[in-house]
């Protein structure tokens, strides 16, 4: 496909999406919720077809040498398909942010002012591997009143098409606009460039994938971007940590699912923590390879030497960097230097130390005595999520319904003129 052909395709998708967004603006909360619930029912109804499409993608991915961590993100089973449907149901039950009054006041001259939440408009989602994003993104965008253009990775094209077909059936059952959620019909990468150039046609681009994808979107986009950067997450075990809790949290944070963005990638251990060797042993025995500094390597001979790049690496695999640090200030400095601003955790019984960590670590999500694997919109009570935004503007952390809205001022007068 040539660039002009891609631009024409995107212009058509965006024009239809703009019409869909306008129609969606007149749809009630109950109708949007009914559409998501109907889509969830269709997902369950077509589970076998979705799994067959996913098996096709997995076979092609394995033959093409796709990394194991990416294949894990791609893989669906019956439980994961049911999870996709459950996420749609969860979003359908969330409070609708559209029309919510953020604040209101009355000026001395009698003008009544209010700021009211409204949809962003047309949102494009560019993502890799995970077929569940097709449903999550569509559900969140539509519930927030936005039309969405979905461009999934070529490695998941059959799975995405099968999931989208179920969504389309469910939305049609509820009478939602047909163009409220469109899937880009071609896998050609030139279409991504066309989406990024579509200033004036698309209101927001959300990339969800690896560092390379996000970097390309940020570098090339002429459309506003809501960035989800890599999850180079840290768990810091303070000297006051409860040993049993620390071991359980560290193993879960790293090994529950190694290919998710909430996985811990660096373990920092306070030099004064007396059970450091047990932490290292627990991870190694769980099948995790460790790369450590000199002090960490002294804990277990199976730990290999880390290099400078390890501290900034999102492994998405059963690999973890380990460093021994001189207390909380050193841990905070390590996170500031090497972290990605996604999710960082402290494990400690000392509340004062923990509150210091929570206040000083400038990440989108900061945790105390909890696994970093809770960095997920559903786990934080937001239903599904578009991704974890690591910037500082508009939305931060898990981006769910409210993060997919903006606001406008409404001014109500009684004939006031400005002197």
Task: Put the structure in a nutshell.
It contains 14 helices and 16 strands.
Describe the structure.
The mean pLDDT is 94. Strand 9, helix 12 and strand 10 form a beta-alpha-beta unit. The longest helix is centred in the N-terminal third of the chain and has 22 residues. The chain folds into 2 domains: 253 residues, 3-Layer(aba) Sandwich (Aldehyde Dehydrogenase, Chain A, domain 1), CATH 3.40.605.10; 142 residues, Aldehyde Dehydrogenase, Chain A, domain 2. It is globular, with a radius of gyration of 23 Å. 42% of the residues lie in helices and 19% in strands. The protein is of the alpha/beta class. The chain contains 14 helices and 16 strands. Strands 10-9-11-8-7-12-13 form a 7-stranded parallel β-sheet, with helices on both faces. Helix 1 crosses helix 8.
